[in-house]
Design goal:
Length: 114
């Protein structure tokens, strides 16, 4: 059974940085696409960034220039480096992977507050 295991969330002050990690355990195949979604209180889940096996990445406009997604295909692992964090980045961040089937992690909470 495939599981996505996230780590790296926490409390950070505005302007600070965090690095999220997500490993896809239990799959013998490299996921075609992997990425991050987030859901803030009272809001719908939204896509943050995604990356394909060839390294092609996409970002939502509000995080461009601040967040960087990367992946290690051999380890089925992706990372999200988040810099210059703002209060509006506060949310539960979910790892997502796709290889014909959608997989989701349980989420990790990121709180940006002074």
């Amino acid at each position: 059974q495939v599981q996505l295991v996230e780590s790296g969330g926490g409390l950070v002050q505005p302007g600070g940085s965090l690095r999220l990690s997500c490993v896809g355990a239990g799959s013998i195949f490299t996921f075609e696409d992997m990425g991050w979604y987030r859901q803030a209180p009272g809001k719908e889940r939204e896509a943050v960034a995604s990356i394909a096996t060839d390294g092609t990445s996409h970002y939502r406009d509000s995080v461009k220039g601040r967040f960087t997604i990367s992946r290690d295909n051999a380890k089925n692992t992706i990372y999200l480096q988040m810099n210059s964090l703002k209060s509006e980045d506060t949310a539960v961040y979910y790892c997502h992977a796709y290889d014909g089937i959608n997989y989701w992690g349980r989420g990790t909470l990121v709180t940006v507050s002074s």
